[in-house]
Specification:
With about 190 residues, this protein is an alpha/beta fold. It has one domain: 3-Layer(aba) Sandwich (Rossmann fold). It is built from seven helices and six strands, in the order βαβααβαβαβαβα. The protein has a six-stranded parallel β-sheet. The two termini are about 15 Å apart. The model has no long low-confidence stretch (mean pLDDT about 95).
């Protein structure tokens, strides 16, 4: 694996990694945003260690007209403020509002959001980046860009698809039950 330090960039999925995923629904307002246990502490610690920290999130609820870009921006602004209050930071949040059926679209595993981050922060080196996510598309996104990948295994309905993809050559660098477990592992490795 690796030791997270200032030369690394951290890419994180949102729903299922940072906050509770709402299966079959979307977090459409801050009142529906629920931090996963230990996620805020982990985010603060991880982002203090990394050179850059980004959230990259598929948000087709916007494309479906279930929420506005403004509502999503408000959720992300509040999330970033809470991370800052906890002592961490998120340099930028990138989202894709496209529907899964749209061609082309910017949804993970398409690397568009990572490319946007690199355009805004040219020092980002994908070979010194880690993608932390809970889905097959997150792992494919990271692998396609040459990133280290960390699976937060909270999306149980996708585990069979992930196992099949591993059998076809998908590489997952590490697997944890939560973002907090990943952070604890980083702390253990740096003592």
């Amino acid at each position: 694996m690796f030791t997270l330090d200032k030369s690394w960039s951290l890419f994180l999925d949102r729903d299922g990694v940072i906050n509770r995923r709402l299966p079959g629904a979307y977090v459409r307002a801050w009142e529906e945003f629920e931090w996963l246990p230990g996620a805020l502490e982990a985010l603060a610690g991880l982002t203090r260690r990394a050179g850059r920290a980004f959230v990259v999130t598929n948000q087709q609820g916007v494309g479906k007209g279930l929420m506005t870009e403004e509502a999503l921006a408000g959720i992300h602004a509040r999330m970033r403020r809470e991370v800052e209050r906890a002592g961490g930071r998120i340099d930028a949040v990138y989202h894709c509002p496209s529907l899964a059926s749209e061609v082309p679209n910017c949804r993970k595993p398409n690397p568009a959001m990572a490319r946007w981050a690199q355009a805004d922060f040219p020092e980002v080196d994908f070979r010194r980046s880690v993608m932390v996510g809970d889905s097959l598309s997150d792992m494919q996104f990271g692998q396609a860009l040459g990133m280290a990948t960390v699976l937060v295994a909270t999306k149980t309905d996708e585990m069979e698809d992930i196992q099949a993809a591993i059998g076809r050559g998908l590489k997952i660098g590490a697997r944890f039950g939560s973002l907090l477990e990943f952070y604890a592992d980083i702390l253990r490795k740096t003592k």
